[in-house]
Specification:
Strand order of the largest sheet: 1-2-3-4
Number of strands: 8
Structural class: alpha+beta
Order of helices and strands: EEEEEEEEH
CATH superfamily of the largest domain: Stage V sporulation protein G
CATH topology of the largest domain: Arylsulfatase, C-terminal domain
Helix content: 10-25%
Length: about 140
Amino acid sequence: MEITEVNVKIVGGNEKLKGFCSIIIDKCFVVRDMKIINGDNGIFVAMPSRKIMDKCPRCSAKNHIRAKFCNECGESLSEDRVQQDNSGRFKLFSDIAHPINSDFRQKLQKAISEEYEKELERSKLPGYVSKYNDLDN
C-alpha cells in the first residue's frame, strides 16, 4: 500500500492540537479527520474516532458512556454498566480506522509529519491558503 496523497490543515491557538489531515491510499481510498498532536515525544497522529455509546436498558436509545440519565426516556443509568481501566477512567472513544501493523503506522506517521512540516513552511509565505479540503478529497 502506498500513501499517494497527504493534505494538512494547520490549526492555531491550541498547544496540543496542531492540525488535521487526510490521506489517500493507492489513489483510491481516503481517511479523513486524523489529528496532528504535539505529544511529550513530539508530533504524533491520532486516528479518526467516534464516541462510544451504550443502550438504555429501558428504551434501547443510545447514550454517551458517561451519561447518568437516558437522553430519550430519562431513565437513571447505572454507573457500573461500563468497565473502567485501572485508573478508574472510561474508554470514551474508539478508532474508526487505524493501521494494523507498526510498519504501516511508522510509514503513515512519517508521511504526515513530513507534510505537516512542509505546510508549516508554506503557511509563513504571503498569501498562504491551505489546500486542505474537508469535503472533496
